[in-house]
Design brief:
single chain; mainly alpha; 2 domains; 82% helix; elongated
């Protein structure tokens, strides 16, 4: 277990218990891995961010509600649970400039495809292979995205 505050250690333990109870599929459905990462980041920023202090209480409440939600599953409860987690993720992204796992990879692939399609017309006509531009663009986008994701991870900017 990672070293953190007493609050984080308690939350991580409770999330771990829910993961064992729900199994892999249920834990993924309730986004428990993301919730653990969000809780870790909220704990790190709670000393300097008033909203993160409030989010700590919200996470505690969310875990208490999760116990009831698991016993009486329903789509509305699950939607509310996921919406609450997403709201916390948005705060971390906007205020603390954090990014999701694979953020730059996805962006790089999209930009690479767009640039590759544009260049692919000219390059493809010259080489008699119209798909080569998109393939090169995606490859370049993946390489740049992987580099930026690795850099963000090293700088501690990934949720």
């Amino acid at each position: 277990m990672e070293v953190g505050s007493q609050w984080y250690n308690r939350v991580a333990t409770e999330i771990g218990q829910h993961q064992m109870t729900l199994g892999e599929k249920g834990a993924k459905q309730y986004k428990l891995d993301l919730l653990r990462r969000v809780a870790k980041r909220v704990d790190e920023f709670s000393d300097i961010c008033a909203e993160c202090q409030a989010l700590k209480q919200e996470i505690t409440n969310l875990l208490q509600e999760l116990s009831l939600l698991v016993q009486m599953p329903g789509k509305e409860g699950l939607k509310k649970h996921i919406k609450t987690i997403n709201k916390q993720v948005e705060h971390l992204k906007k205020v603390h400039k954090l990014v999701d796992k694979g953020h730059y990879m996805g962006m790089g692939i999209g930009i690479g495809m767009a640039v590759g399609a544009g260049l692919g017309g000219a390059l493809g006509a010259a080489m008699d292979n119209p798909g080569i531009g998109t393939a090169l663009g995606v490859a370049l986008g993946v390489a740049i995205g992987m580099y930026l994701d690795k850099k963000a991870r090293q700088e501690g900017k990934v949720i």
